[in-house]
Each structure stands twice: as structure tokens, then as C-alpha cells.
């Protein structure tokens, strides 16, 4: 299974990145291949068109089975940097990718962000969001492990339920 | 597999209901049990508290594996009737339920509705939305069969992808 | 000036109502006419069509200069009862009405609600929202007076700025 | 009166820019000072911190009485470029600015965008949005003049109504 973490913080090596990496670790059984794309390392070509470097990153994300899109909360929603990366896709450019929105923020004032702003954006691109978005307030940093563990358990439960429903659907090839 | 269609149109037997029923038929292989709840039949107790009748309906929906929440577009979003039904749940009251938002509307002006308004509401309740919301414009009624078939195929593809990812997650019991 | 408070709590005489009434008192100079519509008193006909009683309430709100739409937070957004009342309007039914969205909630988790869910709904109906929505967490009840006073001051400042811009626009009659 | 148009299209001199400029022309009586900021000209420093050039642009926008934020529709919402510009503000950085959200798009599928995504973002920054966001579909280009004229008339009507309400509010200095 190919897993990617895309980090939308304009500053590299952020806490937001660490939170997303921890969620991957807690959510997945060993045996996956992980790539982390810290968009802070690629701001120079984010508005260049065409860009071989960005095209390769976009392709790598679109070919993933699971992607965590992680962003600090800027103005109650995801960063412009993350959006600029997603803007490079054509319509439906993340079709079939399972995507988990992750926001971090100072307190809970913007806790709705990943669910009401980033999740619909990912769905618009064709991605599938398996539940609520994950929000971490910095006041929770001391309980980071437990908070992320609980979120991982919730997503794992959701996946188990989705797999059951999947068995009852018509084969996509035939329908 | 237990499947439910919840219809939020204040008028019973609506086209919205028929559209949702057709999506169920196209999406699922035979062998499921289907219940249709036309909320128009239950407006008398929708604000009564407690209400045995409504409690039974709420429970039936929450115990379903898959639920289609179908609403005509009222003021660019789902109806107050559908929201009033969902308001009766406690926090996380649809945990683990797979839910597909379905809106119908006159034209495409409010096509974003099921994805940006109903899907986040269902996620807030703990439900899992496997992709974009489904929107049908009345101008598409003549191609209803093809349009719904294509949506069903997209959801079926999404479910197949989700089932793959599910195999790589930690067991919810252990994590 | 005609001012109306519409309260969407299914229970009458709520704290949400008191909060909205206090905001009116703090925001406006004496000399206005105030009507309070507690929708809890009108649930019996909210889905009846036609309904003389509801039609009169709808008309009264639409003829107001300023309306506060106040709702407790249910599932991260406004109540189904408030939405059911708004659903009775035709398209653009609140054209030209100045409207302030007010949500109350247990804590700040859903503080984005009035700005990202109720404000766009009111705008869809043609109303004009003069700034952010107002959110009050119950943990703020002891500082209620100061919190509401600050919100009133912010709206008053916004109105003063809007009045300046208004002077520079073309006359609506001529344009 | 100081008026600014901020254009979020990564390509300069876009149709989106022309549409926003036309709306300014139709909405305002002569006598205003207009600045147009085409963000496409400033992508090189949009993620640089600090940046004198960007700081000057941010300040100029924040000191305006009226700002039109204009963006083509990318993934159903505003561009990452526009968001990256807005991300440079501190909390409440557009306090008191009257702001009109303008989106252009291929058809009406994403017509809700300026009202449900850009307007709440501007409100979060403290700006005041005087009504719905303005959306123009490219299929309307032949009736551009009439469509923009009608939008201008609607905003002008809203401003006239807001000015009336402003007269009844407490003075912001005293309250």
C-alpha cells in the first residue's frame, strides 16, 4: 500500500507534519510504503507552469492509496500553499484516492475546519474521506499520543464498516 | 446488509425519493434489506419529545449499514425537515454508518450543496461519506437512468478502493 | 426601525433567546420597535401548507430592517426548526433585510458555525450579514454582558464603515 | 473613497480581472481612487517572509474602504494564490473593510462558491460582505454588461438598506 503525507505548512518540518506522521503510524499495520511531501520545500515552482518537479509530486500523490493532507489552520481553513498544490490537478484529479484531512490549530475555535472546508475540497477532486477530518489543538500536545490513537481507532473502525458495505455493492467493472 | 433511504421532502412520494431508490438499486447487488422513511409521513411528531415513533425511526437508521439521505434543494441546502430528524440524534449518533447525501434541484446552480453542506453534517454525526454527494438536476430527468448508473459506478469504485485500504489498517479492536 | 429576533430553539424561552435580545439592546439606540418570534411556539404549523399564522410571521420578518436569527448549535449548525421556518420563503425572500446570525453552544468546538453555515444560508435568501456571525459559548455566560457588548461594538463599527461606502455607490434607483 | 481589486488568477490580465473592474465601475459613483492588484505579478514573493513588497500590498488592501476579491473557480472555490495572499494577514487583518467576493467559472456548477467559501473566509478576517458573492459563468459573457449591472444594482440596494440600519445603531465610540 502506498501512503503519502502532504504537508501544507509554508515552514518545513512543522508540528503539523509530525502529527500527520504519527496518525499514519497509528492507523496502519506495518508493510506500507510512506512518502512525505513537505510543500515548504517546493514553493519556488508552486506557481510555475509547467513544472516537472511539481508534476512528479502531483502524480505521486494521485497514485497513492491513502493520503493525509495536513495543514496548520490559517484563517479558519487550510493554507494557500496546500490549495495551490491541489489547484494543479485537473478536475477529478484525486479520483479513487482515500484522503484524510488533518488540521492543527491553537485552540478549538476552528475545530470544524478540516470537516467543513478541507474535506469538501478533497471530495470535489474525487477523493474519498473516511469520516470526519482530524483536528488537533496545540493545547492537546501533551496528550498527543492518546488523542491520535483515538482518532486512528475511529478511522480503523470506519474502514472496517466500509469494507463490509463494499462487499454488498455491485462490481464496479460490471455495473 | 441493512439499507435505508431517508427522504427529507415535506411532500411524500417525491421525485427525490425515486432518485434515491434508483441509486440504491443500481449501487447494490441483490440480497439487501431496504427500508424507506419518507419524513413527510412523520411531521406531526418531528418536534415532539419524547416520541416513540421517531425514536424507532432514528434507531432504525442508526443501525443501518448504508443510508441514503435524500433531500430536495431548499435555499441551496438540505431541508429543515431532514435537519430536524437528524437533530434528534445525540452527538455521534450515526457513528459507523455509511451515508450518501443526495440532493435534487431545478438546475445546477446549487450542485455543490450535497458535498459542501449535507456531507459535513453527516460526518459531524459520525457517518462516513464515500465520495462526493450526488446531485441531480431536474433537467437530467430524461437521462435519469444513465446519470444514476454513472454515480453508482463511481461509488462502487470508491468502495472497492476503500476496501483495499481497509486491509492495511490496524484492527480497530487492537489499536 | 423594525427589528425582529427569530429564535430557532425547539424549547421556548431559551438562553439563546436572551442572548439575542441582549445583543439587540446593546447594538441599537433607543427608538426601535422589537418583535420576538420564538419558533418553539409555532411548531404545530411549521410544515403545514398553507398556514396563515406562519405566513404572517414570515411576512413580518421579511419586512424588518434588522433581524437576529438565533439558534442553539445542533450538530455543528443551526436547528432544523430554524431551517424549516426559512424554507417557507420563496427565492430571495429576505432581500434587503440586514441579518445577524447568532449561535450558542457548549464550548468553542462549533464556533465557526454561524459564520460558515448560517451566514451563507441567510445570504442565499438575499439578506445582508454585516460581519462575522456571533457565537457564544456557555462557558462565557458569566461574562455575558462584556462579550455581547464587544460584539455589539464590532457590528456598530461595521455599520459605520458600511454607511461610508454606501455614500459612494450609485443610487440604486438610477443604476 | 479608496477601492481595490485583488485578482487571484495565477495568469495576469484575466477575464476575472475585467469582470471585477466592470463591477466597480457599475457600482460606484465617480470620485473614487482605484488600485488593481494582479497577484499573478507577485507570485515570486508570495511565500517569502518577510517581504516588503507583499507587506505594502497587504497594507494597501487593508486600508481600502471597499475591496473586490476576484478569483477564477479552482476546485469549486477560490485559488490557492488568493488564499496565500490572505494568509499573510494576522487575525482580523481586514477588520472594517467592505469586501465583495467575485468568482468566475465555466458554468453554474460552482455558482455557490463565492457565497459559501470566499465570503466566510473574508468574514473570518473581519471584512464585511454586503450580500451574496457574485458569480459569473463564462456562458454569460455575451450578456456581461447586463449581468454585472444587475449585480451592481443589488449591491447598491443593499448598501442603501445598510445605511438606514446604521442610523439606528449606537455610536461605536460610545457603546
TrEMBL record, chains A, B, C, D:
Keywords noted in UniProt: Flavoprotein, FMN, Oxidoreductase
Gene3D superfamilies documented for this protein: 3.40.50.360
Flavodoxin-like domain segment(s): 5-160
Keyword Membrane tagged: no
GO molecular function, one term: oxidoreductase activity
Pfam families documented for this protein: FMN_red (PF03358)
Domain of life of the organism encoding this protein: Bacteria
Keyword Oxidoreductase belongs to the record: yes
InterPro entries assigned to the protein according to its UniProt record, in alphabetical order: Flavodoxin/NO_synth (IPR008254), Flavoprotein-like_sf (IPR029039), FMN_Rdtase-like_dom (IPR005025), NAD(P)H-dep_FMN_reductase (IPR051814)
Protein name: NADPH-dependent oxidoreductase
Amino acid at each position: 500500500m502506498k501512503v503519502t503525507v502532504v504537508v501544507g505548512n509554508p515552514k518545513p518540518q512543522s508540528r503539523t507534519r509530525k502529527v500527520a506522521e504519527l496518525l499514519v503510524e497509528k492507523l496502519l499495520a506495518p508493510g506500507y510504503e510512506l512518502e512525505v511531501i513537505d510543500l515548504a520545500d517546493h514553493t519556488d515552482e508552486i506557481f510555475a507552469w509547467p513544472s516537472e518537479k511539481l508534476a512528479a509530486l502531483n502524480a505521486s500523490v494521485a497514485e497513492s492509496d491513502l493520503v493525509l493532507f495536513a495543514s496548520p489552520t490559517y484563517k479558519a481553513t487550510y493554507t494557500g500553499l496546500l490549495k495551490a498544490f491541489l489547484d494543479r490537478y485537473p478536475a477529478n484529479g484525486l479520483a479513487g484516492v482515500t484522503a484524510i484531512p488533518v488540521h492543527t490549530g491553537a485552540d478549538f475555535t476552528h475545530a470544524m475546519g478540516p470537516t467543513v472546508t478541507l474535506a469538501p475540497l478533497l471530495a470535489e477532486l474525487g477523493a474519498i474521506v473516511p469520516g470526519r477530518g482530524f483536528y488537533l489543538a496545540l493545547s492537546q500536545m501533551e496528550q498527543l499520543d492518546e488523542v491520535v490513537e483515538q482518532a486512528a481507532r475511529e478511522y480503523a473502525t470506519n474502514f472496517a464498516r466500509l469494507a463490509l458495505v463494499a462487499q454488498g455493492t455491485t462490481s464496479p467493472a460490471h455495473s
